[in-house]
Amino acid sequence: MHDLLFKGHVVTAHAVLENGWVAVDAGRISRVGQGLPPTARHVEDHGDALILPGAIDAQVHSRSQKGQEDFVWSTRAAAAGGVTTIADMPYDDGFLVCTADNLRQKAREAGEQARVDFALWGTIAPDDGPQHIPEMAQAGACGFKFSTFGTDPVRFPRIPPDLLAACFESVAQTGLIAGVHNEDDEMVRARIAAVTRSGITDWRAHGLSRPALAETLAMAQIYETAAATGCSGHVVHCSVARGYALCEAYRRQGVDTTVEACIHYLVLDEEHDVARLGGRAKINPPIRPRAEVEGIWAHLAAGNVTIVSTDHVSWSLARKSDPDMLKNASGVPGLDVLYPLLLTELSRRNLSPTHASRLLSENPARLFRLTAGKGGLAPGRDADITIARRETWHYDPAASDNVLTDWSPYAGRALDWRIAGTWLRGQQVFDGQIVLATPGTGRFVTPEQPSGLR
Predict the structure, then answer these.
(1) Tell me, what DSSP letter sits at residue 359?
(2) Does residue 207 contact residue 265 with C-beta atoms inside 8 Å?
(3) Which residues contact residue 106 at a Cβ distance below 8 angstroms, ignoring those fewer than 6 apart?
């Protein structure tokens, strides 16, 4: 007699088990099967809906704008979107997570607010060099984030090549990943200056100021640095198809390289969506033309995309509404529609939902070394479970009580899948309409083997 049983079409990373079931005991998955189910004290029969692993969103910015979202809202949106763990970025407004003390403080504060589980990235302050990386790993960092482009000298600084290599060497000793924002600083600054001189200020300005070559040049540096240092090198977002080919080429050479496709690079394009939305679709790197979108999908189908994330940030609308495209903040919200967006695109392209299980759960857990408890529907793992039912609906953030902002680049988009429920460690945190989890429900999750030096 199990504590809890889920019935439906079970989606693992490799197969869809029609008429499948997942048995749960003491908040962990105990058995997964197909056909005649075992008995349980409570049964969740979801018919022909999909039973999916709770998503792990590898890239969330809960505190990019002080006084705006914070974990109380980002994790609420996550629960509503079937996301049961978020990995939050270290570039908080006025608080760079670059020491063990800062990371522990953020973990305490997030723990008081979070409705789902959370992991935390660390980074460095350039003047400190890599000295704090080992102690941040000991404090529970899930990885270390750097940037080849300087968005802000204090909050989001550029890490120059020699210092980046030193950081990779230090991260390699922890066994964790080094994730890098991939844009060549010199090229982007030159192109921004050229666009400014040209007088172009509308939606076209952003793509012109950050060409595809700026991404692939930076990716070559990142992957060469990984090859030279033995560090796991992860590119945290790639908007161009060639970047995925680069990653795969290095993997064939035996280098531990990975690459991330944010959901906006899979569903939005420049000529239709950026042209329509302007600043609301400004993201770094930019959303590209439809040809690049299709190129990324070809790589996803071929297995060359490691994970999919949101790069979620809920800017206030005032930060996204300047008619001068380059003056808008970069980034968009998306936590509450990550699973529906990806499942919709997969089904419309006749691709299996197993891609979603792999890209949103199994692979992120492996990336962050969380597989002891997270990462799919398998015995021994946390019972983080998302139910998705087929339903045609139009997304409207203004009609939702589960997101902070009433704007989104996905507003009005027709979707074919809706989240019907989310469970975190066997407890229901979203019932299809209302987020049931209270602040403090979420736990700080840390890598199994970050522990000190190899």
Answers:
(1) I
(2) no
(3) 88, 92, 95, 97, 120
